[in-house]
Structure formats: structure tokens, C-alpha cells
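Chapter summary example: a protein plus inosinic acid.
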Amino acid sequence: MPNIVVVGAQWGDEGKGKVVDVITPHVNVVARYQGGNNAGHTVVVGREKYVLHSIPSGILHAGCRCVIGCGVVIDPGSLIDEMESLVRRGVTLDGNLFISRNAHLIMPYHPALDLASEAKLGARAIGTTGKGVGPAYVDKAARVGIRMADLLDERLFREKLEINIQQKNRLLRDIYDAQTFTVEEILSPYLRYAGWLAPYITDTALLLTKWLDSGYSLLFEGAQGTMLDVDHGTYPYITSSSTTSGGAATGTGVPPTRIDGVLGVAKAYTTRVGGGPFPSEMKGAMEEAIRARGNEYGATTGRPRRCGWFDAVVLRYAVRINGMDTVALTKLDVLDQLETVKVCTGYRYRGEILTEFPEEETVVKEAEPVYEELSGWMAPTGGAKNESDLPAKARRYLDRLEELIGVPFCLISTGAVRDDTIVCEGSPLLRWFPSVRASLL
Ligand code: IMP
């Protein structure tokens, strides 16, 4: 049974939630490996819409086991809210949800530091979600972080909290002129959270290995996207975790030798939330039209997303960095009404044409997009079951994108619901999960 990583190929919000939801019936386990409640994975099941932040979207499928791996940072209050809201809607968590003992906690001082640090950065602000994700990873790397397992040991938790409060209060007061915290005001709610979460906290790396040994199939669910990766993204305008496929191994404890394939998810255009370079960004009326038609507002913060044309340079880079075997293309329908569609095929930089994504911050900032224009199809694509059902000009657009990115598409999504999904012939997805097509008919 194959173990596959699903990873965002752009700046997040590619529609990974829907793709994971389509594949989940064919696997036994879904594991999140990085990020925190900065993510917002939207899944529409029938008439019901779910937005998941920390829990893998696999939880919406009865019997699917879901793991929050050690690479994730967890805000326990927000996780419990998410759990309660799922239980209210009839989702069973007991026996289906497992949380790593080694996952780090987002503490109340982390969002405070996140917001205070952003305010100080001025024009170089990252535009974070303000959830404290970056500062929680700072503590993890600085070896002062508090882990899920610590929450279960009151004495140890208090000891670590006291050390942190001393240090963080100095930072908050003296550097940022911001609100400080007391040990007691954090201790009591966090010990209450411990009582709630204890039954779900376990050695998930061991559990996953045992499941794999017994023949289970695992889907690794990435959050955010390649261009927000702490190493490979548009640093410093990134999130603080390894969003790319390599993170799947370190963020779960499953060795890379047990990963069989990587599926990238990309929108038929591009979006980005927050600050930072975005070479194929649209401006004016076109951006507004795409934002309105694609409902491009952050699932976590409600912020309007910046919109741009499909950037083949970014995609080729994402294919290379992640080792993508195939790409699921989402939201094709958002382009249905356009007379022409543009594709960015390279960047012009100081008289040169770059076809590989540049790593230097200043080059990316100055890079001007080189576009190829294709004729729009001006016809609906929603409801198509096969690529051959699509308008000829839409097929031409897809063919050109495939040619530019160098790997085949496996799914084309033309709407929010599961039914609006085309499974592409001969793609690696059908090799991994031959019954995907039948399950969508
Ligand atoms: P942080 O992850 O909250 O620290 O934010 C860092 C950057 O990543 C900001 O530009 C955010 O807008 C972006 N970001 C974080 N999570 C997501 C996501 O789930 N989708 C899209 N962008 C995100």
C-alpha cells in the first residue's frame, strides 16, 4: 500500500483539503507533519462545509486514523475548540485521533510575541496569521519549547513554564513594550487542557511505524505551500516550518525510505496571503475579479488573498524541491469567464531571462514576469468528469501547463464539491490508488 505526501506547490491555499478528502477513502491513515493553526483547510462534504486548522481533514471519513505529528505546533485551546465543534457535528475522535507527545505547544506568549514582532518590523512585516506559530518554532529550535508530553507532567510543566515566563516577560516588556504574563494565569487553563487531551497523546512515530508494518497506507497532509517553506521558500516571507515533502519524514518520524510518492497541489492561477515577493501578481480589476470568483479570502484570518497568474517558474521549482510525481490542479473554473489567460514562463532580471526560481530575496523582488498569453475558453468547466469533456481551449491551457512544469496532472478540480473533480488518465495517482476514479463517479 503506497504512502504518499500531499504538498502545496505555491504559497498555500491551493485546495489541499479537497484533494486529501478525495484520496482519504483509499488510505488508512492521514498525518499532518508541520505548521499549526495558521492553516485553514476547507472541505465541502455534501452541503456541509468544514474548516480544519490543526486536525487532518481525514477525520471527516469514518474509520480513518488521523495523526498530528511531532513537527506540528499545537495551540491546545484552539485544538480543543476544533475537536468540540467536530464532535458536535457527529465526528468520532476517540480511536481516530492521535497526537504526538513531541509536538510543541503554542503558549499564550507566542501570539503576543508574534504580533509585537510584526509591529516592530514595519515595512518588512511578514504578514503572519498572528497565531504564534513562528515564536513557537523559535522556542523549539532554542530548546526552551514545551512539548505535549510536558503537559502531562504538572511539575515539569510548571518548571518549564516558569523559565519561559521569566524570559518572555523581559522580551515583551523591555523590547516590545507589550503585555506580560503570570505563571498562574497560564497554568490553570493549560492543566485543564491536559485533562482533555491526555487520552489522545501518544508516541505517534512508533504507532505509525507499526501501522505501516501491518500494511496500512498513509497520506501525509502538508500545510501551507512550498514557497512558504522555512528553507526553500521566499525567505524571510515564509512560515517557520518545513512545508515541503522532506518535512513529512522529520515531522512524523516515518523514515523517507517509506515514502512512495509526492503529489503536489496547485491552483490554476496563484494566490498569496501576507507580505513578500510575488512575481506574477495581478493588479486592479483582474485581481478583484479573480478574488471575487475564487472567493480568495483567508480561511483562518479572513484576509483578502493577493491573486496572480499561474507561475510555471514557481511550479517547476516546486516539482524539483519536493520530487513531485504529479500535480492536482484546482479551481480551473475560476478562469472560465476570461477572454485570455496568462502563464508566467520566466522572469526578466537585469536584461536576462531566468527560467529557474532565484534564491536571492532581491532578485525575486526585482524579477519581472515574462508571460505567454493563451485564449480563454469562456465556457463552464464545472461538472466535467473527463478531460475530454472540457472545452478545447481549456484542454490547451492544461496541456501547456503540463508541458511547462514537466510532470502530469492527476486531478483537475472544477468546483468545491467532490463531484467537481476530473481524474486524469494514466497519472501516478491511478497507479497508487486504482479505485479513485470509481469512487468519484
Ligand atoms: P505564520 O505562519 O502565521 O507565521 O505566517 C507567515 C506567512 O505564512 C504569512 O505570509 C502568512 O500569511 C502565511 N501563511 C501561514 N499559514 C498560511 C496558510 O495556511 N495559507 C496561506 N498562507 C499562510
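Key point: The radius of gyration is 22 Å.
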